[in-house]
Amino acid sequence: MPTTAPDAPPASDAPRTPAVPAALADVTASDGTLRRFLHGLPGVDAVGLEARAASLGTRSIKTTAKAYAIDLAISMVDLTTLEGADTPGKVRALGAKAVHPDPTDRETPSTAAVCVYPDMVAVAKRAVAGSAVKVASVATAFPAGRAALEVKLADVREAVAAGADEIDMVIDRGAFLAGHYMKVHDEIAAVKETCGSSARLKVIFETGELSTYDNIRRASWLGMLAGADFIKTSTGKVAVNATPANTLLMLEAVRDFRAQTGVQVGVKPAGGIRSTKDAVKFLVLVNETAGEDWLDNHWFRFGASSLLNDLLMQRQKLATGRYSGPDYVTVD
């Protein structure tokens, strides 16, 4: 833990929304109490954390359980396109794939959501209309998170007004690393307030930029104290994204938060999860750490669009005994 106090945090214009569960209400009373709480969290044993994540990753499952796991993983995917070259046609095609991932087998579950930039939300809503697929939108100056608060909130308002069911926001990592925890808290609370009752909020930490496991634990608790509905590892836009170890740490955080407050928060690992084998490892992490209550797409998601094709190919193999290959699924 740092032994020197960080620079004094700048004043925040964001409202301090009373979203904190009563059990932890005093924690966010001031910058000082918040800092003492976050730095008072137990330090992370990095060797032990990585060893447990690796051990859980060696678990094998039987064929019948694998079929269930594949369908569950498909239902947890947030199918995403976040490129400057995105077009309405591409978003419509992605929406169609989210609703029917395998057009040759209508028993294949839909994905959880389609995730797009705010200006594509209306297109995505029309593409998934009549289905259970949600529309998520990145906001708050994604992926860097470096913009004035009013700009970030305008980003959120645009997406919500267009019909977004979920908002994926990025925290100001610079403020967090400088120790300005209340500023980060207040921005999350302001975004949560702007989401209103119509959109759930996923808070992205960009764990690859937080440097230490202790920081990831602190960010997890900070996000939940500010009202996050989900905590999410990464944007997928940096070198280090979701790993079994950082996801395990976040699963421990949501488990412990619910134990203290009664409030359940979801987890979304994003970036770098590409194979069915990887997805199964993460599902084992969920089951063994947070428990069965999180084995549902309302509480756990994969931010990994390339994962879907491998899941579909493995599903086809289980059904037919033959491995179809990548030519039998669409390239997004």
Proportion of strand residues: 5-15%
Amino- and carboxy-terminal Cα gap: 43 Å
Order of secondary-structure elements: HHHEHEHEHEHHEHEHEHH
User: What is the C-alpha radius of gyration, as a whole number of Å?
Assistant: 20 Å
Summarize this, please?
By secondary structure, the protein is of the alpha/beta class. The protein is built from twelve helices and seven strands. It has a seven-stranded parallel beta sheet with strand order 1-2-3-4-5-6-7.
What does this structure look like?
With 332 residues, the protein is of the alpha/beta class. Helix content is 44%, strand content 9%. It has helices at residues 31-39, 46-56, 63-75, 88-99, 121-127, 149-161, 173-177, 181-195, 213-225, 244-261, 276-289, 305-320, and strands at residues 78-80, 113-116, 134-139, 166-170, 200-204, 230-232, 266-268. Helix 5 (121-127) links the parallel strand 2 and strand 3. Helix 2 crosses helix 10, helix 4 runs parallel beside helix 5 and helix 9 (213-225) runs parallel beside helix 10. It is globular and about 60 Å long. The N and C termini lie far apart (43 Å). Mean pLDDT is 91; it is low at 1-18.
List the helices and strands and how they pair.
Elements: H1 31-39, H2 46-56, H3 63-75, E1 78-80, H4 88-99, E2 113-116, H5 121-127, E3 134-139, H6 149-161, E4 166-170, H7 173-177, H8 181-195, E5 200-204, H9 213-225, E6 230-232, H10 244-261, E7 266-268, H11 276-289, H12 305-320
Parallel strand pairs: 1-2, 2-3, 3-4, 4-5, 5-6, 6-7
Helix pairs in contact: 2-10, 3-11, 3-12, 4-5, 6-8, 9-10, 10-11
